[in-house]
Specification:
Layout: H1 5-15, H2 22-34, H3 37-53, E1 55-56, E2 63-64, H4 70-73, E3 78-85, H5 88-97, E4 102-106, H6 124-131, E5 138-141, H7 147-160, E6 166-169, H8 185-193
Parallel strand pairs: 3-4, 3-5, 5-6
Antiparallel strand pairs: 1-2
Helix pairs in contact: 1-2
Length: 198
Amino acid sequence: MEYVLPLQRLIEKFCTLRGVGYKTAVRYAFSVLDMSEEDAAEFAEALISAKRDICPCNVCGNLSEGGTCSVCSDSARDGSVICVVEDSRAVMAIEKVKEFRGLYHVLGGVISPMDNIGPDELRIKELLARINNGEVREIIIATNPNIEGETTAMYLSKLVAPLGIKVTRLAYGVPVGADLEYADEMTLMRALDGRRQI
């Protein structure tokens, strides 16, 4: 079914969002139509403000409203440990746990030859510059456990380990509540490698 042109354009714009299919885009568009004009204006302003006011932290690359993000600005954080992640979503996920007290470094992606993304397209030079200040003792590599994430982790490990910095990788394994019989080989291998004494 073809909608009136302004609605169709709105649906098409929602479809451009990652993970949003056509049916979801239609629901979103009708939700906007159901808003008051004031609420719609606030919604539009929030979109524009987010795009205009959020920028990468000048230290770690995380989301920031100014020059430096709240993590890098926190003097209580342990500057000797840096957790290397693919993007700011990973920072937010780790921060939810409230256990990690070190700093972060956002790469801005992973090495992916299929997508023409090599090491030079990532924030690896910036990471090395942070390491060279002499304060960093450990790098925790927290890229996703897929081929690109593993490739990136191996590349970083080979770059950083010769500098005398401890390089660790997040342990991955069987999620809580899962049955072992349904776990794939890679998950079980990671679970065994990441085992610890109880």
